[in-house]
Amino acid sequence: MCDLLDSQPVAEKKLSRMKKLRRTLSESFGRIALKKEDNGFDEICVTKMSTRNCQGMDSVIKPLDTIPEDKKVRVQRTQSTFDPFEKPNNQVKRVHSENNACINFKTSSTGKESPKIRRHSSPSSPTSPKFGKADSYEKLEKLGEGSYATVYKGKSKVNGKLVALKVIRLQEEEGTPFTAIREASLLKGLKHANIVLLHDIIHTKETLTLVFEFVHTDLCQYMDKHPGGLHPDNVKLFLFQLLRGLSYIHQRYILHRDLKPQNLLISDTGELKLADFGLARAKSVPSHTYSNEVVTLWYRPPDVLLGSTEYSTCLDMWGVGCIFVEMIQGVAAFPGMKDIQDQLERIFLVLGTPNEDTWPGVHSLPHFKPDRFTQYSAKNLRQAWNKLSYVNHAEDLASKLLQCFPKNRLSAQAALSHEYFSDLPPRLWELTDMSSIFSVPNVRLQPEAGESMKVFGKNNIYGKGLIKH
Question: Longest Cα pair distance anywhere in the chain, in angstroms?
């Protein structure tokens, strides 16, 4: 009897504990369901239930259709991803990878996502134009063709801007031309208003395409259009920009090595830009020997013509002097018609035949033979090019650039400080690398001889806002 009586309280205690536990569990599940209803889509885990992925939320699964519309929009907006190469209206909404483990609507028996979900998960449309892709650019017309490359005017499908497409043909047995590799590698690191900008590089099995900013003409075509010499003010602005670009690359120990009017581009706003760095070299220190087969003959300095393979930035400065004279006079400074011998004779006729007194070390150059050259005495440059005398300080600057002895030539940085430029606004020397000289007030190109405001069109070099009144 005592045992039976003792067992009843125990049974009642167990029953009481079970009721209390049941009540506690019911209240707990009720709170979980209420929490999910309040938080909506953010707290819903619709997938194969796993305590690791869903952290215990294994009851009251709501279908997508019952989720309030405002919460659907909020979740999609926070998980959208913008592709910078697409237009703003073509943004692609993606489901975040972390949520893909817990959000898998209408899962099939094989566990694969529905096509609708996969489509939302794609990063971008396969037809969207991209940088670095050949089909991202449309060829409009051929601009020129060389021994290993063809240049086209093109248009970018990414941003609609005009570009110049330099298409370099590749051959299996020869591979990529070293000049193309050199040009691309150097231009990638050069950012200056007076250096042509390399936008993109496209490589396929058959071609290597360098995508440049499109520039409307070059100095050679500009001078052909305006024979007899350019307006003195325009010569000064073009020369200032040329020296500005050269000073930038020379400070980085880069030589252009092929300065000529064809490689100086002129934009429709009047900006001059150094281009065609196929022969450029990054000069190491101390000096190494380089090929003397550089620079077009008319603009090749006498030290290179005589076989010197040790040169520095002074190589480019000779070309600057030749181009300066040509812009003012209207004809090439030293237009050799036959060969290197003829080219040297034309130079010595004006500057005098060199000797050890005027050019220390000239006798040690491979191609210098005193008996091969006529002995000329140096002349004033105005005797050869009379228009130099019409412009203040022009002859002095030209004479300091056209020095036979390389070390006597003025550097680009020093030339920018020459008196020839003294009447230009001081702010020109304070510009940042990527700032155009035409951003300075009162710096404008002048109409060339024989032209007037009536003939200026939108594609003319004297576009709106470029004339100084």
Answer: 146
State the catalytic residues. Answer: 258
The burial class, CB within 10 Å (0-12 / 13-18 / 19+), for 148 is middle
CB-based contacts of 169, cutoff 8 Å, min separation 6 = 148, 149, 150, 206, 207
**pTM for the full predicted model:** 0.67
As its CATH architecture, domain 217-455 has: Orthogonal Bundle (1.10)
Ranges of each domain in the chain: 134-213, 217-455
Contact 85, 65 (CB under 8 A): no
Beta strands in 45-177 (DSSP E): 80-81, 92-93, 137-145, 149-156, 162-169
Asked if the 134-213 domain carries CATH number 3.40.1130.10, the reply is no
- Taking Cα atoms as reference points, which of 321, 312, 314, 324 lies closest to residue 347? 321
Q: How buried is residue 432: exposed, middle or buried, by Cβ count under 10 Å (0-12/13-18/19+)? A: exposed
Q: What is the CA radius of gyration of the chain?
A: 37
Please write the tens of the pLDDT for every residue from 365-412: 999 988 899 999 999 999 999 999 999 999 999 999 999 999 999 999
